């Protein structure tokens, strides 16, 4: 399965109201699917595209990468810093009430 990013151009298989394969640009990436803005389609599918409001959510496994946007390399140091920042222990708070103060 390819890693998709926003801006990638992908080819999609026909489904639902679409009678032909189409192409689109990735607008949003989910865990196992992507939202695609349909921009290149068969003229016979114009009513299908209108019915879908120009967008479709498709499985990543069924999408074919046509043109990828330039990828930025992710630094391992930045990822390690984010992990250590999340692992800070929570502060323990001792609850003090007026009754506890009077008993002493």
From TrEMBL:
Residues 64-73 have a biased composition (Basic and acidic residues). It comes from the Bacteria. Residues 64-104 are annotated as: Disordered. This is DUF2187 domain-containing protein. Residues 84-104 have a biased composition (Basic residues).
């Amino acid at each position: 399965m390819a890693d998709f990013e926003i801006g990638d151009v992908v080819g999609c298989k026909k489904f639902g109201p679409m009678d032909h394969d189409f192409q689109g640009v990735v607008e949003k990436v989910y865990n196992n699917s992507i939202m695609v803005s349909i921009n290149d389609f068969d003229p016979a599918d114009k009513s299908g595209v209108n019915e879908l409001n120009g967008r479709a959510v498709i499985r990543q496994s069924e999408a074919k990468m046509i043109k990828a946007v330039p990828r930025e390399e992710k630094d391992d140091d930045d990822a390690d810093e984010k992990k250590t920042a999340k692992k800070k222990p929570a502060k323990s708070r001792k609850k003090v009430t007026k009754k506890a103060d009077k008993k002493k």
